[in-house]
Hints:
The complex is a heterodimer.
Chain A: H1 10-36, H2 39-64, H3 70-89, H4 108-127, H5 130-141, H6 146-153, H7 157-180, H8 186-200
Helix pairs in contact in A: 1-2, 1-3, 1-5, 2-3, 3-6, 4-7, 5-7, 6-7
Chain B: H1 6-15, H2 23-46, H3 59-83, H4 88-114
Amino acid sequence: MDEPVNQKPKAQLDAEFSDLYRAHLRDVYSYAYYRVGDHHDAEDLTEQTFLQAYRHFERAQRESHGRPLRPWLIRIAHNLAANLYRDRSRKPASPIDDTMPLAAPHTTEQLVEGRDELSRVLDGVGELPDDRREALIMRFALGMDNREIARALGRSDGATKVLIHRAIKQLEEIVGDRGENNGRPQAERHGRDVESDASRR
Amino acid sequence: MSGALPNFEALLHQALAPVEPPEDLANRLESTLTSITELAADELEAWELSAMRDPRNWARPAAALVVGGAAGTALVLLRARRRAQVSSGGLSGARESTERTIRDLRREARKLLGDH
């Protein structure tokens, strides 16, 4: 027997959207920031994400069957970020590097204590393939569990677990490699990195 | 299953710390949604009844109604909750922010409405 479609009262739906917005503004912004690499684009991306969410909120709620909507929000942001990169890559006047270096949004104390190490980690995150980078952002910046990340990326739980494992492993290698070369001139380090990438392939 | 050192994951947590959104972002977002609401209302008002005789024209005002209605009522709640948090200086900043962004937002709103 078909279940009747229960439409929520408008006020209730609006209150729930308001709660969603308040609960996840920081998540969406954090994701956007680490994804696009600067505050200006992150603000735009966050704004666009919630606009899209407004448009499709009722349907998303209906189809979520009570599951959390954070993965849905992050998936919207993920798609919009992909569109942003695609649009910009078509415009020669405003090229964008998909692996642009991430700026650390940390406190002065944190920077003083472990600046080099954190910088190396962030640089390394920026060098990861897109799907690995995104999985790490979701896990560590947003605190999402495997299931949530799987939903946001449209993958199975198992595939997501493997993805995160490989992402951490690759990042460890990158960071370790950078640590060994820390005192060397950047051009020399870059040359060595390219070489080691080629040999890994 | 991760073979990563526990302290490396701790380092990752530290490096990828959550980023607090700028204070004016929430205000900007509300302004955006207000724009959409207003635009949706305008869209409906400006629509000539004669045009509605053609069924091909029905989708657009229907979209305006849906978007405008959803954004409008949700905004009442957002605004009510935000109002208590915003200081007098914050209000001034919000107004400036609204004026600065409203043109871009209207363009965006048109795009959203035109998507249907």
